Inverse folding.
């Protein structure tokens, strides 16, 4: 692949990752999933930076991605501390549990009654029995019971 | 040849891709429905998502040969599909695992782009450290079964439309990129370009990092230290205040 198409395709992949992360951070209510979405936006940025770095034959983009990784690690550490603190106060990982911090003029999220989710009992795979069932020695079973 | 198969102008195709991806994300996002309707919506959303992805691939081909290099196509598909699954999966544990798969895809994309060190570092730092930390917190904090706040979303329609419109605008501007706009740096580029197959890639990256960007490296080190101390301090103070609350009560 020549360099311009490769650049465009990598930028497209980066854009898709960024948009998906945006949707996740806007729509989801679980704090942890919101952070995963934020990390995904950072991934999209990283892909774009490396693509430009490759296109220009320059190290700048890759160096910047190393710093993005550093900042992401710091952000994850501090964010998880805050999430744990929020969880120990409210007992939920819910972003809407903190809506009392909103301005009074803004609307509240009111949870309506959710329909019951008919979660079926999980089906675990079972191995088909193979081979011949060994003959059990009845005497041995008796002896074992006496031990 | 492809223009004959899909007799649409690029603009129409892009608009269709954006609409399909918005609808697919809206259908896939948790909206607190009952089991059967939810399953139907998910299948419908997955189908629409595949259509949107195909449309984006065709747009990419029009941009310039997405799919010529099959490795790039495969790893980017892995990255994008599992990223979508991360965003829409109900269980946060599954979301974290899908995110790990998405990271593997991103690492593959970085490898194809010739950033070997960053590909490996993504796996080590993200999938190895950050993701495991997320999973720890999830295991600590997750109630049994699906929490109600995992089964509903904040404004799923608006969020899906916003994401899809952003994606459409971005791919429009990516498609407008031409060699003329970006050739500025051709004379600035160093004599030896970044090459995936260079033997001393990591050594050269490290040399660049520790010569031109030495102060930035020091700053990053200080940042990591501050984050470490800060997170411990926040945890400790939180515990202290909780103990005091208990004593007062």
């Amino acid at each position: 692949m020549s360099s311009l198409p490769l650049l465009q395709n990598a930028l497209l992949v980066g854009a898709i990752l960024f948009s998906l992360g945006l949707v996740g951070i806007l729509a989801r209510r679980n704090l942890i999933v919101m952070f995963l979405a934020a990390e995904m936006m950072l991934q999209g940025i990283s892909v774009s930076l490396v693509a430009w770095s490759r296109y220009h034959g320059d190290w700048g983009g890759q160096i910047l991605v190393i710093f993005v990784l550093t900042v992401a690690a710091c952000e994850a550490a501090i964010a998880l501390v805050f999430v744990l603190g929020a969880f120990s106060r409210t007992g939920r990982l819910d972003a809407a549990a903190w809506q009392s911090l909103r301005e009074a003029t803004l609307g509240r999220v009111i949870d309506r009654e959710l329909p019951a989710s008919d979660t079926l009992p999980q089906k675990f795979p079972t191995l088909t029995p193979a081979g011949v069932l060994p003959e059990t020695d009845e005497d041995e079973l008796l002896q074992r019971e006496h031990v | 040849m492809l223009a004959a198969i899909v007799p649409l102008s690029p603009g129409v195709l892009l608009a269709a891709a954006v609409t399909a991806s918005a609808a697919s994300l809206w259908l896939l996002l948790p909206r607190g429905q009952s089991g059967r309707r939810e399953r139907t919506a998910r299948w419908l959303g997955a189908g629409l998502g595949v259509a949107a992805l195909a449309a984006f691939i065709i747009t990419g081909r029009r941009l310039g040969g997405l799919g010529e290099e099959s490795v790039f196509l495969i790893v980017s598909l892995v990255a994008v599909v599992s990223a979508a699954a991360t965003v829409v999966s109900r269980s946060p544990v599954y979301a974290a695992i899908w995110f790990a798969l998405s990271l593997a895809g991103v690492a593959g994309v970085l490898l194809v782009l010739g950033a070997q060190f960053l590909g490996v570092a993504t796996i080590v730092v993200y999938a190895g450290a950050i993701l495991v930390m997320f999973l720890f917190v999830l295991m600590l904090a997750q109630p049994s079964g699906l929490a109600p706040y995992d089964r509903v979303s904040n404004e799923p329609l608006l969020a899906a439309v916003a994401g899809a419109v952003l994606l459409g605008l971005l791919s429009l501007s990516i498609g407008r990129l031409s060699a003329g706009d970006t050739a500025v740096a051709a004379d600035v580029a160093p004599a030896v370009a970044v090459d995936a197959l260079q033997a001393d890639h990591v050594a050269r990256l490290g040399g660049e990092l520790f010569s031109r960007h030495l102060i930035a490296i020091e700053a990053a080190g200080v940042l990591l230290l501050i984050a470490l101390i800060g997170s411990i301090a926040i945890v400790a103070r939180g515990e202290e205040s909780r103990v005091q609350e208990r004593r007062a009560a």
Chain B touches chain A through 105 residues (CB under 8 Å). The radius of gyration of chain B is 23 Å.
